[in-house]
Amino acid sequence: MPVLIPDAVRVPADVLPEARAIYVENYLAATRGTGRLMLYACDQKVEHMNDDFFGEGIDRADNDPEHLFRIGSTGVVGVLAGQRGLIAQYAADYPDINYLVKMNSKTHLVKTTQDDPYSAQLYSLEAVLALRDTGVNVVGIGYTIYLGSEYESNMLSEAGELIAEAHAAGLIVVLWIYPRGKAVTDEKDAQLIAGAAGVAVCLGADFVKVNPPKATEQQSSAELLAIASEAAGRTGLVCAGGSTVEAEKFLSQLYDQIHIGGAIGNATGRNIHQRSLAEAVRLTKAISAITLADYSVEKALAVFNGSEDFQFD
Amino acid sequence: MPVLIPDAVRVPADVLPEARAIYVENYLAATRGTGRLMLYACDQKVEHMNDDFFGEGIDRADNDPEHLFRIGSTGVVGVLAGQRGLIAQYAADYPDINYLVKMNSKTHLVKTTQDDPYSAQLYSLEAVLALRDTGVNVVGIGYTIYLGSEYESNMLSEAGELIAEAHAAGLIVVLWIYPRGKAVTDEKDAQLIAGAAGVAVCLGADFVKVNPPKATEQQSSAELLAIASEAAGRTGLVCAGGSTVEAEKFLSQLYDQIHIGGAIGNATGRNIHQRSLAEAVRLTKAISAITLADYSVEKALAVFNGSEDFQFD
Amino acid sequence: MPVLIPDAVRVPADVLPEARAIYVENYLAATRGTGRLMLYACDQKVEHMNDDFFGEGIDRADNDPEHLFRIGSTGVVGVLAGQRGLIAQYAADYPDINYLVKMNSKTHLVKTTQDDPYSAQLYSLEAVLALRDTGVNVVGIGYTIYLGSEYESNMLSEAGELIAEAHAAGLIVVLWIYPRGKAVTDEKDAQLIAGAAGVAVCLGADFVKVNPPKATEQQSSAELLAIASEAAGRTGLVCAGGSTVEAEKFLSQLYDQIHIGGAIGNATGRNIHQRSLAEAVRLTKAISAITLADYSVEKALAVFNGSEDFQFD
Amino acid sequence: MPVLIPDAVRVPADVLPEARAIYVENYLAATRGTGRLMLYACDQKVEHMNDDFFGEGIDRADNDPEHLFRIGSTGVVGVLAGQRGLIAQYAADYPDINYLVKMNSKTHLVKTTQDDPYSAQLYSLEAVLALRDTGVNVVGIGYTIYLGSEYESNMLSEAGELIAEAHAAGLIVVLWIYPRGKAVTDEKDAQLIAGAAGVAVCLGADFVKVNPPKATEQQSSAELLAIASEAAGRTGLVCAGGSTVEAEKFLSQLYDQIHIGGAIGNATGRNIHQRSLAEAVRLTKAISAITLADYSVEKALAVFNGSEDFQFD
Amino acid sequence: MPVLIPDAVRVPADVLPEARAIYVENYLAATRGTGRLMLYACDQKVEHMNDDFFGEGIDRADNDPEHLFRIGSTGVVGVLAGQRGLIAQYAADYPDINYLVKMNSKTHLVKTTQDDPYSAQLYSLEAVLALRDTGVNVVGIGYTIYLGSEYESNMLSEAGELIAEAHAAGLIVVLWIYPRGKAVTDEKDAQLIAGAAGVAVCLGADFVKVNPPKATEQQSSAELLAIASEAAGRTGLVCAGGSTVEAEKFLSQLYDQIHIGGAIGNATGRNIHQRSLAEAVRLTKAISAITLADYSVEKALAVFNGSEDFQFD
Asked: What is the interface size between D and E, counted as CB pairs within 8 Å?
């Protein structure tokens, strides 16, 4: 089981001296003291609108946004990532969750065939710090970059400046980086994803979320991911959970991403919140068991199936 | 009849501590102490120019902008929503109205076939706070977002930052969210409208105004609206009044939106101000009777017909 | 003859308390104590470049920009509207003129067939206030909006913020609003012009300059203008003078615009400055006689012809 | 010979009181006490890249940027106009030159057939004032506007604000105004150039540099220039030197531009710096002899040929 | 061997007096006291993504970003150029390297056939100064300009302002200037590259990195480079290393660029880091031997081959 002591947290040089202690605290909180990140992605109400929250195959409870917080507070997660406003509306009733404020978002209505994607910054970092100052447990921020979009420069600039500001204030930063746009013909190409991971470290992010690369005839997705993890350098790589799949397959993939692919965590949304509260909670525990405590797939499945419990702190 | 005590007002976490009391006061004023919102929409002089104020079927009095304020001060409304300048020109003579400053507007001259819609922010929040400081009874702000427009990112960003600023200063925020643009093929699709409602809570709005969804063979508009209301979470959903319809039909729809659809209010413009002062005043009272005091349609119609009066405070 | 006492000036609520006295002073100065506005438009050296100032049918004196100031100081005008720089170059020698700083301008070189019109803000309000602080008699600002242009949002935003800033500092504001762009098929349509007038009051302008609407078979231009004047509410409507026409026709139109059309003034440029100094001065007096002192057309013509003088103060 | 005493300098009203003395000093320095401007244009290394500095017909010395400063310090010029950075690199060794900082520039690589021209502001006025504060002899700024470009509004706005800021700080301002873009069919049309001159005075520039108009059958270029000079009003008009021509022709044109065309100076670049140091120095003296001391063409030619020297101070 | 004493450093006039000492220190550090610059380019993880760091012909070690720093700290380099974030993540462990923060970057995904290149500024200079203030050894900044791009104006403006800010704070500035875009038909044309060099001095850069010009029938690349070096004036010209070539050829080219072409250094990335640590270190030494100590190609090759060592300080 990975354990991290405060002195072992590597603090980037752009964290101002007066913010180092808070950065270490945030880093340890987000990774539950392990250096591994279980990111619970709750930012899809803008990205996918209600398509991820209501409809066939989705538990009816998921239509109420509070479902996200109920899972987050009952389950075992590292951080709950959501837009500033969403957090502001619910955080008072769920004070123990570690929040990661997603700084940009777009809907899926305009397709890439019509226009390249641009997800714009929605509020200043000052607004996030003000939220933290009112007592909300904000440990970091997130930002999505679509590399290869004709608006790539907008997103690189917003992310670049936000990281400097966030680190200066002791917040950790997670980048979501997806190659996308008319210029991108194969979003899951392993070399491209490794390149995306490398962009993250150049911008100075603490973590980067990428899609798992497409397997080739020679190499599995997890093997290819290992190259991306290495290319990310000191930026920890976490993998996107993707669409809802059967739990065993999901946990097995996650295990391989970490133990073969060098990922130091995961970022999962739909796979969790589209389930009933009880099942979703158990899935967060199973995911965290693998991510934070190096459980085997079999043991994690036992957690998911409820035959074993998993607590962490 | 819904009643709300000050302690029951749920204050979002981004309201700064020093602004909490004023936020609660504004929330109670806007909802007349009920938690329900009767929004009287007076921002159409830009959106629809004079087409909503002069012409066949419109009372001649509506051509004078003061008609809006006469109705607002004599009738029963929660807030009068209008542009900053309009309010600044008349507020001194109508000091008792609760004003909601609409922060953006566009005309209808450029159609979506020519260019996707962008309604730009017209003034800073500082200008609104200055107006409040001179004694005008400003309780909140409003902003329109056209999701699916190629300019969606502009509007999401302006709204995102404005909400942070407004809450910090104790103002309530109402978003108008309409899916619109070349990418949007069915603006009234229920799933799309529920998605729009979800975007509002992610941005942290207190209320969101959406169009009533189109009924399907299986479900009525009000039933479908219930899904959107739930998807809006702690952001209260109110329905757009739409074009002028016969009063009984209008009140009946409103009743269903609230009692079946989970709406906590309405936003009505043309249906009110295109009538004579006396009739318009009675309509505000009938609407408020349903919205604020849970009247039946029949009783509300009696108010509209003048056989019964409705006072509220 | 319209007379206005200081106490009767209606001060918009966004004029800051400390600026109320200066606003009243500026309003009275601009309207010469009558509430009516004789705006002498000297901003066309950018808009029409030299085509309005040199050539067939234009007095040779008009080529020298100082001609504008000679007329303004010798004739009877309410305000001389011009760009900040033009005023800065001549104001020291013409200190008694009331100046209105035109905040935006464009040339006529790019036609609407090539690109929709955008007239951009040329300087900050701070620069205007600095000019006022050096002793120049600046009483207000002006801004042109092309509604229906694809750049409409730029202009609405710049105007919206400028009005807030100008009122806060006690300056009056005049908007020029013209529907123009590929989306506009009939710029002189009466309903459209009434709509433009309504936009002005929503933005909070003190005066709006519109083109006179095109007469229909049923109604004269002045009768249709009356609808626009009413739609402008507390924003006073003034009519554009248009191209140079024979004086009697011009004065007769002006008389009707005021007495039938509800205009509270006029905005005239070419009709004045394209004449010799003496004739131009007499025309300003004739126009002011109608605008400020309710002269009949016949009496005003006598002023223009020099058979009678008109002084005002 | 034109002479100007400090009291005769007409100070624009937007020069702040505390900056009036420095403005007068700068104006006198730039015009060498005459009110006439000999502007030595050294900004073409961006505009024309190396095509103006190296190649057939160009003295080999011109390839080294220091050639520009050697000429400027040895010859007789009013101001040396160049980009901020160029001046910063050489000014310490050429402290006696009056510098005019060119605020915008573009290369000639993108042709008007591909995109309309936009020459963007390259640094803030603060950066220029900081340079002045370190002791560099900066007397003013320059800015180029391409009227009729689809980006005209960008340039009008940048120039408009810069002039206000520069005057406030006591700097003189020279505008370069050229009609250019897809909408402009005849850049040298006399009426168009007179219009450009008029735009300069509306923006409040102290000097405007225009191209000499194309002669017509009825009128010479210099005669037509007289109309533009008058249209420029209190903004002094200077003529662009254009491409390298034979010295006698050049000096003869300049004489006519001043004595017939009403120009109060010239702006010359290539014609000077493409020559050897000695010849270039003599040409600056010949030009200054005409511009600053009303020499005849014949006498100025003697200066250029070295049979007579010309010193000025 | 070139040696520079502190008093011989030519300090641009825009370095503020209080920053002159630090500028001299930075200049000497970056050039290792020689006035020559060995720039080790580590910014390609964004520009070329992982294609420069992983794949056939690239040492496997290059996939880990720390490889860059290991080389930089063990080898002999002037400055290591990289993005702010990359430096922030590793600088604490490699404190002795001189860092040059690359201020802008883009990926290669969108090709010029799709859209002209724009590499946007990624963070403010304040963020860089803050990094310096935490103790990171930041000696300067870098910025890439694509002249001839339709977005040229964006880059010229960002660079123009950054140079002023950086010099004011005592940082040195390196520009990367490449002509590129639909308008550019021959990026390696000698006259064009000389023009690019001239733009750098106009902006006030201390160094400019250009591609070596294409040889003609008459002149070698190095001979043509001499013209560009001269056109750069006081801005030192360094040559891009380009793609990986055989070491002898590379060192021979470098020697000629300096001794024939007038370059005062080099900027090399791929050629170094795509090799194993040991070989890469020896290459930095060989390059530095030529650049900083005027070694012959033969002697430098001995350094590269390990038969001789090269230390410098």
From this structure: 157
